[in-house]
Amino acid sequence: MASETLHEDPQKLGSDVIDVHRAIVSVMEELEAVDWYNQRAKATDNPKLRAILEHNRDEEKEHASMVLEWLRRADPVFAQHFKTYLFTEGSITGIEAEAEEGGGGEARSDANGDGSLGIGSLRQVNR
Amino acid sequence: MNHLFRERAPITPAGWAEIEKEAKRTLRALLAARRVVDFVGPLGWGASDVELGRADPIASPTGAREVQARLRRIQPLVELRIPFEMTRTELDAIDRGARDPDLDAVTAAAREIAIAEDRAIFHGYEAAHITGICQAAAKSAVPLGTSHNDYPGAVAAALTKLRDDGVEGPFAVVLNEQLHKDLAARTEGGYPILTHVKRLIDGDIVPAPGLEGGLVISLRGGDFELSVGQDFSIGYLEHTTDLVRLYIEESFTFLVLTDQAAVPLAPRAGKKS
Predict the structure, then answer these.
(1) What's the structural domain count of chain A?
(2) Pairing label, strands B142-143, B38-40
(3) Closest Cβ opposite residue B24 in set A76, A119, A123
(4) Which of A76, A114, A123 is facing B35, going by the closest CB pair?
(5) A/B interface, count of CB pairs below 8 Å
(6) Which residue from A4, A77, A81, B165 has the fewest beta carbons nearer than 10 Å?
(7) What is the distance of C-alpha B32 from the center of its chain?
(8) CA–CA distance, B28 with B110 (Å, rounded to integer)
(9) Do A123 and B39 touch (CB under 8 A)?
(10) Rounded to 5 degrees, what are φ and ψ at B245?
(11) Could you read off the pLDDT tens digit of each residue along chain B, which spans 273 residues?
(12) Is A29 contained in some domain?
């Protein structure tokens, strides 16, 4: 069992959806761990323990990033949004407004990126 | 700066945004194969080939007759590029806020390269080592019939072939652009023929300007693989006082992994549609 949080019959979901579920639950667990370690590191008065907690917290960030990258490769919509918002500068809500101007996020010039028009897969049906 | 040299173009962000918006709109409207085949990538401009997992025995190295050698098989990516020109007058107009910029050159270039990708995927591109779906599945082709009313029957026959071969759905029907228009306009028993065809499949009917005839194809995945190195991008070539020369470019290759997972609908002999 991937987790206790499947909301539908696994037979109907198929392996692709269950794998995405596994990844999403993993990201949730890693981020929750980051939050816990962060609070404990801040709260403790013992500097040696704090150093370990901060080290462990930052390792969870690495784990979360690795799973997020897997999700990006598996899900073209995640990939598109990551491409729009990650590693940008300036107002994030401004990027959204600019991206949606002209319909579906097509108006923003990508001249500072890799130049790709970001067409990707146009398939609507999930396997 | 990368190999597209966009930063050297005398084009403002507003100009780029309009050019890109038009190119995306046209590509998304016309690209048909990307709606029905698996998409791998983008792998980047640096990607040169796709591993096929096979190797051929070759002659042993000189002076080492006991050493066995095998050469790996790969499929190279093909680079497609279509140049186009924008007048600087029109780019200036965009910067002044013109709401009706003349982007016909962008549209025409995007249309041509979109159809080129689709033709390679559907009908093959020998010089690029690409075998198309219709070529690979030619032996199972079903004739479209002599009248538009025959088309639902042809689709049903194709679906039967697919199911007889153990190919599961959902399925999609890809139709030549003109055929799609014809079927949308004609009726049988009061319903558009397109509606009859749609009832037969658990998927979309996709119009494709780059396809001759039609194609019934499984969307279950794992059968047809489009590998893209650099996805469609706009690059800069040169400019004069009057014109800016740009291009749309992509790199890709295509593999048919299961030729039984599609059945071509062959147009009538002598009728090109």
Answers:
(1) 1
(2) unpaired
(3) A119
(4) A123
(5) 81
(6) A4
(7) 6
(8) 10
(9) yes
(10) -100, 125
(11) 788 999 999 999 999 999 999 999 999 999 999 999 999 988 889 999 999 999 999 999 999 999 999 999 999 999 999 999 999 999 999 999 998 999 999 999 999 999 999 999 999 999 999 999 999 999 999 998 877 778 888 999 999 999 999 998 889 999 998 888 888 887 777 777 777 787 788 778 899 999 999 999 999 999 999 999 999 999 999 999 999 999 999 999 999 999 999 999 998 765 444
(12) yes
A99 in a structural domain = no
Cα separations (Å) of B164 from B153, B216, B217?
16, 14, 14
CB contact under 8 A, A118 and B2: no
In B, which residues are within 8 Å of A120 by CB distance?
34, 39, 42, 231
Q: Tell me the CA end-to-end span of chain B in Å, nearest whole number.
A: 44
What's at A77, amino acid-wise? V
Other CB atoms within 10 A of residue B87 CB: 13
ipTM: 0.85
A57: domain range? Answer: 15-74
Model pLDDT, residue A101: 54
Q: H/E element holding B73?
A: strand B69-76
Q: Is residue A63 part of a domain?
A: yes
For chain A, the distance separating the N- and C-terminal CA atoms, rounded to the nearest angstrom, is 21
- Establish if B34 touches chain A: CB-CB under 8 angstroms: yes
pTM confidence score: 0.71
Query: Which among B2, B16, B220 has CB closest to A114?
Result: B2
User: Based on C-alpha coordinates, what's the Rg of chain A?
Assistant: 19
DSSP-derived letter for residue B272 is -
The burial of A87, by beta-carbon neighbours within 10 Å (0-12 exposed, 13-18 middle, 19 or more buried), is given as exposed
